[in-house]
Amino acid sequence: MQYSTQNYNVTFEFSSLLDNKEYTLFYFATSEDPTLTATSSAVKMVNAKTLEALTVNINWEKQVIVSFLLIFVMVLTL
Predict the structure, then answer these.
(1) CB 47 within 8 A of CB 66
(2) Residue 68 falls inside a structural domain
(3) pTM over the 0.85 mark
(4) How far apart are CA 31 and CA 75, in angstroms?
(5) Would you say residue 46 lies in a domain?
C-alpha cells in the first residue's frame, strides 16, 4: 500500500517487477485515516507490461577470439 499527501500530481515508482510480464495495478484515493468509515474514490485500474530486457555484450571481440582458439586447439588434438 502506498500513501501520499494530498497532491494532484502523484508519481509512483515500482521496482522488482519481472521483465516481459503483464501487471494490473489497482488504485483509489481515500482520507489520511483509511478506516472503515472513511470515504474513498472509485477503484480504478491500469494495465502495464514491462519490457523485455536486452543485454549487449560490448566485449564480444575477446570472446570470439577465445572461441576460435579453443576450436583450433581441439582440431589440433584430433
Answers:
(1) no
(2) yes
(3) no
(4) 74
(5) yes
C-alpha cell at 77: 588434438
What's the structural domain count of the chain?
Answer: 1
Assigned C-alpha cell, 45: 485500474
Q: Specify if 44 maps to a domain.
A: yes
Task: Provide the domain limits for residue 35.
Answer: 22-76
Sign of the torsion formed by the C-alpha atoms of 21, 51, 26 and 34: positive
**Residue 31 near residue 37 (C-beta atoms within 8 A):** no
In tens, the pLDDT along 3-48 reads 666 667 777 888 888 999 999 998 887 776 666 676 777 888 999 9
Residue 59 domain-assigned? yes
> How high is the pLDDT of residue 35?
64
CB-based contact 58:37 (threshold 8 Å)? no
pLDDT at site 69: 87
* Among the listed residues 66, 63, 26, the one whose alpha carbon sits nearest the alpha carbon of residue 44: 26
Residue 60's CB is within 10 A of a number of other CB atoms, namely 9
